[in-house]
Design a protein that fits this description.
heterodimer; A: alpha/beta; Rossmann fold; 5-stranded parallel sheet; two-stranded antiparallel sheet; 9 strands; elongated; B: alpha/beta; 4 domains; 8-stranded mixed sheet; 20 strands; globular; binds adenosine-5'-triphosphate; binds magnesium ion
Chain lengths: ~270, ~775
């Protein structure tokens, strides 16, 4: 029997609610509705799911999807061993058996034929056919499916199929508005609010340049990095350059503009 | 030599117009025409051919004509085709002087020179300078008159692009002056100097070479405006060198933000002195004495200041105030907006103070001169600099009152003007009227000239007349199919208004298909580049997918590796098969064109209208999609109230990208408004019915949804947003390409992340097909 507890979230993760998403998620979970979390990179999607798993006191199994992933990577496969073969559950199957929340991160990265295996789990059937094993798994009553994706890739090809989208309830995340993001950075790192606000301001500058040479703005995650460095004694100007500017761009003009924004903000 | 035969009748006519037999010209003719067609208007093209013809008949061989043919189109692109008469005038002057041999070098470098100078005003200064050079160095040797050509001129002209890459026009002028003054009468040394051979020539060049040129930092400044201020505009350089008396001051108007072509770095303390008296001591809040402020930061200071006006200043009626009062209001208002700017970015205080003069308290003698400017400049300094150190009681009183007003919030132009007026009243002196004005250290050179701060009643504000509501003209018969009715989303009640909008569909009128072919020919070079990318996107017949657990064939390499793992006791990779799929592209595309009135406007920084550029871009896109073989449809729309939304198909799915569709595209015209939601719903009706796997709806627009009967600006924005949700439900991927520089304010509300704003509309023909390819890659 699998040890369920290893997937439990024991410590309360810090999560700053943006609107009323916690209550909404709880409602979705009560009714075991599948959930989709959309939003740009580093805006708190994973953190939210982790927090909800903690709050609901349910195990959480996270799968980072990629384009080489096949259905068997999710469902499971037979392994060849010296004395025969042995079936090994994939993470999705495990979650369905033990009643975990299964979080498929960046689902669009997976090939579309992979994505369809989740379909029977997401409607009223709540089943997972393990064709090769000849088993029809009925999901544990606590099981719930959550997927995330970043709609920022702006490609028709990286869009989810309608038939997949239409099986989920959805949260549309974005970088929080300035006051909230300031609180997040401050709480997450213990940084004082005035400095956190400056970091957020610089983040805003980069987000204004999105589509004009930047593909994505500066994420909340990077703001947290910068604050962490500053807490550790790194000079703010250096910390910002290192954590917020250098990672996101090689474009000299953009770099120069963001550097200037840093100097103008940290007077 | 035989008469050249051109296949295309237009080309043949153009060739004939040139009236030349130079075989070298014939060789480049087609390339030149391709470029000329791309940048010149019809009239411009005629003028081009005529000028080329004239130059060909100067009797100076093929060189000048060849140079002109090749250089003019890109010159016109850089500074506008209306610069031609001035260029021709100079050529005539050369021709009539002994300097005919300089015509070829002049023309050969014209395009790079123009690209560097960027504006017609600047090019004119260059032409004037060249003429002046020519007149002062021609025939002046040892009293022989006018028989000797200028020795240095051809070398100078050949060097001009190189020189302008390093110097401003002002620097170039100084360098030229030095050469003429010292070597005006030595032909050999003059040649050495102007061909940059002599040592002093290079030394003077180094001396004149300084500062930050606007052309070199333009993109950084664009990013600065957008990133830090969410603003943006055309940046237009003016030359600082030729107006010695009245130095031009930055300003902005409908056409853009005007800035000096160069800013030198300045050193705090000696930076902004307008004469001997200027000493800026620096201080705790300013940059330390002696620190260098780079030119780019001076540009940023000007831009920040202008942004401040654009955000917070409101034009005041000037008529009732005296010039003194207005000056005071300007100083106070400048300080108000700078205070607000500093609140946004505290680092600006340091920058502003580094550039702001700090007049000495006793520098102006009120017995002999008007000290008003001096008082205002000190006050201005004190309003921004907590360590100003001035002790004057009135000054300190008003500084306190200013801060009290600002403590409440943003204040306003009106409120701060009242404070300014009482300051003038309180500190008035008889001598303020004196003709001699104390100017030293009173100019704050990063501030604009404040022309936007004033409005004059007498001039009359006709533009402000009310928009008259357009109604459907009863006699204007609506032809075609009966209307389809669509709902519209009313966000205030969060409900649909059923059958609210009538959409009339009528085939787009037709024009001349050859016009579109001409546009495509004009972009021949671009098409060639696109073709390469298109080929990569084209579906290949079979693609192998490896690492499959189940597949059609064993993948031997992987299988053997797996077996080895297994034999070695490790867990083998079970994905030992491979399979084949046809990598089909199954995409249906709908391109929806906003054909509203605003498309008739000229695109910023271009001679062409937005409509013309859209037409070119759409022609190229249609060509590209056709190359890929994706089924696509093309339609335009505009609206004149909810009762009359026109939907004008240009190409249907069943139709070929052929002459019929091209003819309709050629007749594309703009008028009326933009009821976008209705048009999208109607277009979705067709796209939704396509059997394709992926459905892409591209919406090309230059503004926000609006219509004459929708007075609440949000209404149609919210409706379009709702329409996007509906499309999403139907499995259609909407994507907006906006040409509106202000689109960032609303387009995200409608399209989420699925949009792009094209900053430089003139690049649309290139960007649109690229965008399409990126979206479907
Ligand atoms: N609402 C929030 N409350 C607390 N922390 C947050 C919040 N939003 C963002 N963060 C911080 O940002 C970091 C990144 O968030 P997270 O890892 O959840 O991003 P994500 O949206 O899942 O990104 P990706 O798409 O790249 O996986 C977190 O580690 C946390 O520090
Ligand atoms: Mg994540």
């Amino acid at each position: 029997m699998i040890d369920k507890d290893q997937y439990k979230v024991y410590q309360e993760p810090f999560y700053q609610q943006q609107r009323n998403e916690v209550a909404l998620y709880e409602a979705a979970y009560r009714n075991r509705l599948p959930v989709m979390v959309k939003g740009p990179t580093g805006c708190g999607k994973s953190r939210f799911v982790e927090y909800m798993a903690w709050k609901l006191n349910k195990p959480l199994i996270t799968v980072a999807c990629n384009e080489d992933m096949t259905a068997s990577d999710l469902v499971g496969r037979y392994l060849l061993e010296a004395n025969g073969t042995r079936w090994l559950d994939g993470p999705l199957t495990t979650a369905a058996r033990i009643g975990a929340i299964c979080y498929l991160d960046e689902i669009v990265e997976a090939r579309q034929d992979t994505t369809v295996v989740i379909h029977p789990l997401t409607d009223h059937r709540r089943t997972l056919p393990l064709d090769k094993k000849g088993e029809l798994l009925h999901a544990h009553p606590d099981f719930q499916l959550v997927i995330s994706y970043n709609p920022g890739y702006q490609s028709l090809m990286k869009d989810l199929k309608q038939s997949t989208k239409q099986r989920f309830t959805a949260f549309d995340f974005d970088y929080p508005e300035a006051a909230l993001e300031t609180q997040i950075v401050a709480k997450e790192t213990g940084m004082d609010a005035a400095v956190a606000a400056k970091l957020v301001k610089i983040g805003g500058v980069a987000r204004n340049l999105k589509g004009h040479g930047l593909d994505e703005g500066i994420s909340t995650r990077l703001l947290v990095y910068a604050a962490t460095l500053i807490k550790d004694g790194v000079a703010p100007r250096d910390a910002c350059r290192m954590a917020m500017v250098r990672p996101i761009t090689d474009d000299a003009d953009i770099r120069d503009t963001l550097d200037h924004a840093i100097d103008a903000t940290f007077a | 030599m035989t008469e050249t035969e051109y296949q295309h009748p237009l080309m043949a006519a153009y060739w004939k117009q040139l009236d030349t037999r130079f075989p070298q010209v014939e060789e480049v003719f087609e390339d030149c025409m391709a470029e000329a067609l791309a940048v010149l208007t019809r009239e411009g093209l005629d003028a081009y051919l005529e000028a080329a013809r004239v130059i060909g008949k100067l009797g100076r061989g093929v060189e000048p004509m060849l140079a002109f043919m090749e250089e003019w189109p890109s010159t016109a692109k850089a500074v506008g085709e209306s610069a031609l008469p001035a260029v021709m005038a100079l050529i005539q002057r050369m021709q009539k002087s002994p300097n005919g041999r300089a015509i070829a070098p002049f023309l050969q470098t014209l395009a790079p020179v123009a690209r560097r100078l960027q504006s017609q005003e600047q090019l004119q200064l260059y032409l004037d300078m060249t003429l002046d050079f020519m007149e002062r160095t021609t025939g002046s040797i040892h009293g022989h008159h006018t028989t000797f050509p200028s020795p240095g001129l051809p070398d100078f002209l050949a060097q001009a692009p190189n020189l302008l890459n390093q110097l401003t026009l002002a620097g170039l002028k100084n360098w030229v002056e030095y050469g003429i003054r010292n070597y005006g009468t030595h032909p050999e040394r003059q040649k050495d100097y102007f061909s940059l051979q002599s040592a002093d020539s290079r030394a003077v060049l180094q001396r004149e070479r300084h500062g930050t040129l606007l052309v070199d930092v333009e993109r950084k400044l664009d990013l600065y405006l957008r990133g830090l201020w969410q603003d943006g505009d055309h940046l237009v350089p003016y030359s600082t060198a030729f107006d010695e008396l009245r130095k031009p001051i930055p300003y902005y108007d409908k056409l853009g933000i005007r800035l000096p072509d160069v800013y030198d770095d300045v050193t705090v303390g000696c930076a902004v002195r307008t004469d001997q008296a200027g000493v800026n001591q620096g201080g705790a809040h300013g940059a330390p004495y002696g620190e260098r402020i780079p030119g780019i930061d001076r540009y940023r200071a000007v831009l920040a200041h202008i942004v401040g006006h654009r955000r917070w200043s409101e034009a005041q009626v000037a008529d009732n105030w005296s010039p003194f009062q207005r000056m005071a209001v300007e100083f106070f208002e400048d300080c108000r907006i700078e205070t607000l700017l500093i609140r946004e970015y505290p680092g600006l205080r340091r920058l502003f103070l580094a550039l702001h003069p700090k007049p000495l308290a006793d520098a102006c003698d009120p017995e002999t001169a008007s000290c008003l400017r001096h008082r205002m400049a000190m006050l201005s300094r004190a309003l921004l600099d907590p360590d100003h150190g001035y002790t004057d009681a009135d000054l300190n009183d008003f500084v306190a009152r200013f801060h009290a007003v600002m403590a409440g919030g943003e204040s306003s132009t009106g409120e701060i003007a009242a404070l300014a007026l009482s300051y003038v009243a309180k500190t008035r002196r008889q001598s303020d009227q004196f003709a001699k004005v104390h100017f030293a250290d009173t100019v704050v050179d990063y501030r604009d000239d404040n022309r936007q701060l004033w409005k004059f009643i007498e001039a009359g504000d006709e533009e402000e007349a009310f928009d008259e509501t357009r109604k459907i003209e009863p006699d204007q018969e609506i032809q075609g199919l009966p209307p389809r009715h669509y709902p519209e989303w009313d966000y205030s009640s969060q409900t649909y208004r059923p059958d609210w909008v009538s959409v009339y569909e009528a085939l787009h009128p037709s024009g001349n298909a050859a016009d579109i072919d001409r546009l495509l020919a004009k972009h021949g070079a671009l098409a060639k580049r696109l073709k390469k990318m298109l080929d990569l996107l084209k579906p290949q017949d079979k693609v192998r997918i490896r690492y499959q657990e189940e597949g059609s064939e064993l993948d031997l390499d992987v299988a053997i590796r797996s077996l080895i793992d297994f034999k070695g006791g490790a867990t083998p990779d079970p994905r030992i098969n491979m399979s084949h799929t046809t990598a089909g592209r199954d995409i249906a595309v709908m391109l929806l064109l906003d054909l509203s009135e605003s498309l008739n406007e000229k695109a910023a920084g271009s001679d062409q209208t937005i409509l013309e550029l859209s037409q070119e871009a759409v022609s190229l896109l249609a060509w590209a999609i056709d190359q890929l073989g994706d089924p696509f449809a093309l339609a335009g729309f505009h609206s004149n109230t909810r009762h009359d939304v026109r939907y004008l198909p240009i190409k249907g799915y069943g139709e070929h990208w052929g002459d019929d569709a091209k003819a309709r595209l050629a007749a594309m015209a703009a008028g009326y408004s933009t009821r976008m939601g209705a048009a999208m719903r109607h277009a979705a009706h067709y796209l939704g019915a396509r059997p394709a796997d992926k459905k892409l709806m591209l919406i090309l627009t230059d503004g926000m949804p609006s219509d004459v009967d929708a007075h609440d600006e949000r209404l149609l924005i919210e409706d379009a947003r709702q329409a996007v949700r509906e499309l999403d439900q139907q499995g259609i991927f909407p994507y907006c390409i906006s040409l509106d520089p202000k689109a960032d304010e609303y387009v995200g509300d409608i399209f989420g992340r699925q949009y792009t704003v094209i900053d430089r509309i003139e690049r649309l023909p290139e960007r649109l097909p690229q965008l399409f390819m990126a979206l479907t890659k």
